[in-house]
Amino acid sequence: MKRIDHAEAASHFIAAKDNEAFHDKRLWDLRQKRDRIRDEIPEWQALRDLASVIKEHALSHLAGYLEQFETQAKLNGAQVHWALDAADHNHIVGEILAARGVKTLVKSKSMLTDECELRPHLERRGITVVETDLGERIQQLDDEPPSHIVVPAVHKLRGDVAEVFADTIGTDRKNDDPHYLSEQARLNLRPYFLDAEAGMTGANFIVAETGSVVVCTNEGNADLSANLPPLHIVSVGIEKVIPRLADLAVFIRMLSRSALGSPITQYTSHFRQPRPGSEMHIILVDNGRSERLGLADFWTSLKCIRCGACMNTCPVYRRSGGLSYGAIYSGPIGIILNPTQDLRKYSNLPYASTLNGSCTNVCPVKINIHEQIYKWRRVMSEHDQLPFAKKTAMKIASRLLSDPKAYRRTIAATDAALEYLPRFLLYTRFNAWGKQRENPATPDQTFYGWYLKHRSKPK
Amino acid sequence: MKVALFVPCFVDAFFPEVGIATLELLERFGIDVEYPLTQTCCGQPLANSGCQVEAAPVEALFVKNFADYPYIVTPSGSCTHHVRHYLDAIPQTDAVRHVRTHTFELVEFLHDILEVEAFPWAEFPHKVGLHNSCGTLRGLRHASMSELGEPFFSKPLALLGKVKGIEFVTPQRPDECCGFGGTFSLFEEPVSAKMGHDKVSDHKAAGADYIVSADSSCLMHQKGCAERLGLDLKFVHIAQILNGARA
Ligand code: SF4
């Protein structure tokens, strides 16, 4: 699999000036809203501690809580399936739908089903899959993956959306009024809701104690997807289990505040049992999670509640867009999740970060995101995933910087210093420094030279 | 008090005046400053790229150079951050542990260890915007961080506030990374430059004449960006202002 070139993709994103400026501003606004609403909760930091501890407890007792959940869910009348990987998951969904002759599936947003690439799998089996979250629907119609885990089409301007809708659902190309566009999307979606034989949702949390599934949305589309058709399928990653209903309060208080700076999502729906005459299936998906749980440096990434706050605050993400990460999960959380799926393909991602640490500070479950990014760099180097030129530069630098005499010889003349230092830095792209920046001026002497002249005592 | 001065490689080569200001400033407080002549680098650029094997001999040399001093002071937040938090490519001997816990960035050394009350020689009659590098802000905790909503504090502002005539301006996004990020500045050139351009524009819009920082690397990047954009901004290391530079 080819390595994702984040820098290259980012350069195209930045070249579309209006989109980049809007994207940066919109997400920075979310970050600021989040800051303001955080200030309304004096115990915010205590909540973060609590959320982190609950998640770490659940993850370190994962098997037990999952079995408890399964038992409870079955008692409630739901059917529970276990999927080892994406293929397994897709197969299970396909079989459930085929057995009931389902032709149309309405779906609310679920990163997991994107992760498993469920849609193309079902479409190959002749099933129409309709995304019902507005942002996700825009992305589906544009045949693009989501660029953000909470606001999937945030990289698009309203004019872009008008184009997509004009091409796909026949709206007026010149009308980019958001109300008009969302109304048109609603009109387009309504028949699908009414006709679909099955609905699918993800889950933000599943509760071991009650066997219930909790879905948080702002558009109510998950409720329509789950409640209108006679069959409700829930796909959920195994890391989403929390022990008790009481624990949920901690996360609900933080989720939407972290994500959008709003006190709570418009809808927080608890699905506990199938409606009379209908079925409810819950698929518990591993797809690499157990393996991740076994990685000493990275297992806490499973605490993630997918709020997107780390993306909103990330200065790199805001200026490169989610699609530049070449993966379903982008931004800081994507950088630390993706390499467990494919080390080589995502080997550049840990370098798409300045390690500034803002992500770690906003994370409601206190994942040490930037430290994990740093650790992933070590893994990449250990596994020979660094581009040859970079590795060679590092080797040369290592020899030079560990040999004071050779170092001084190289740096002695200031000209040589200027030669050497940028070359040491400039291993990747030719003259990357000077493209959009001026070079530093060359001083007449090094500090070392000055010190010898002015301070050094002869020995 | 005896202190070893660590002058990172790019300061040595490109910003000798920052090393000189640091040395003179420490001497003003009666400190016996020594600059071990066989020093090179703390290993950060290598370790930051994940190259522990390559970082190891550089870190070993760093420790060898500095292990015998009670304090190691450097005008670089990111190097201090590396030494304190990440210098672990080599076995953690007593000498290594000593160096890791006794290396201080200049601002913290002045603020926390020397507890400096005044800089009578310092006067800087200009409008300055402070840039806290991410290594100093979130790594060394130089100042309160906007993400946490904690009570305001700022060690660099506390020191700069003792300088005569200085005036501060605050950009819209004071905490945002400037995009230097070490090798990030080259490996991720498009984003790095965009972040740098945004950063200096933000300071300019706030009315800054100077951007001051405890990290020369961020300043080098921002200066390069400002010059390319044709912005009339000047850049100065905090050591220079505290040592009495007037411009
Ligand atoms: S890593 Fe933390 S901040 Fe980022 S999406 Fe997950 S929970 Fe939110």
- The share of residues in extended strands of chain A comes to 5-15%
Alpha plus pi helix count of chain A: 22
Total count of strands of chain A: 10
User: Which stretches of chain B of 5+ consecutive residues score pLDDT under 50?
Assistant: none
CATH superfamily of the largest domain in chain A: NagB/RpiA/CoA transferase-like
CATH class of the largest domain in chain A: Alpha Beta
- Please, what is the average pLDDT of chain A? 93
* Overall body shape of chain A: globular
| Average pLDDT over all residues of chain B | 96
- Our count of domains of chain B comes out at 2
Overall shape of chain B: globular
- How large, in whole angstroms, is the Cα Rg of chain B? 17 Å
Instruction: Using the coordinates shown, work out and report the CATH topology of the largest domain in chain B.
Output: Rossmann fold
Strand content of chain B: 5-15%
The CATH topology name of the largest domain in chain A reads Rossmann fold
Summary, kept brief:
Chain A: GO terms for molecular function: 4 iron, 4 sulfur cluster binding; metal ion binding. The complex is a heterodimer of chains A (459) and B (247). Chain A has 459 residues and is α/β, with parallel strands linked by helices.
Describe the structure in your own words.
The complex is a heterodimer of chains A (459) and B (247). Chain A has 459 residues and is an alpha/beta fold. Chain A folds into 3 domains: 1-40 and 292-386, Orthogonal Bundle (Fumarate Reductase Iron-sulfur Protein, Chain B, domain 2), CATH 1.10.1060; 43-287, NagB/RpiA/CoA transferase-like (Rossmann fold); 391-454, no CATH class. Chain A contains 22 helices and 10 strands. Chain A has helices at residues 6-15, 17-38, 44-60, 62-76, 86-99, 111-115, 118-124, 134-141, 158-169, 178-195, 221-227, 245-260, 289-293, 309-313, 315-320, 331-337, 358-362, 369-382, 388-401, 404-411, 414-425, 447-454, and strands at residues 79-83, 104-107, 128-131, 198-201, 205-207, 212-217, 231-237, 241-242, 267-271, 279-285. In chain A, the strands form 2 sheets. Chain A has a 6-stranded parallel sheet, sandwiched between helices. In chain A, strands 8-5-6-9 form a 4-stranded mixed sheet. The radius of gyration of chain A is 25 Å and the shape is globular. The termini of chain A are far apart. With 247 residues, chain B is α/β, with parallel strands linked by helices. In chain B, α12 links the parallel β7 and β8. Chain B folds into 2 domains: 2-113, no CATH class; 127-242, Rossmann fold. The mean pLDDT of chain B is 96. Chain B has 13 helices and 8 strands. In chain B, the strands form 2 sheets. Chain B has a 4-stranded parallel sheet, with helices on both faces. Chain B has a 4-stranded parallel sheet with strand order 6-5-7-8. The chains are: A alpha/beta (459), B alpha/beta (247). The interface between A and B is large, with 83 and 74 residues. Chain B: Residues 3-83, 128-221 form the Cysteine-rich domain. Chain B: This is (Fe-S)-binding protein. Chain B: InterPro entries: Cys_rich_dom.
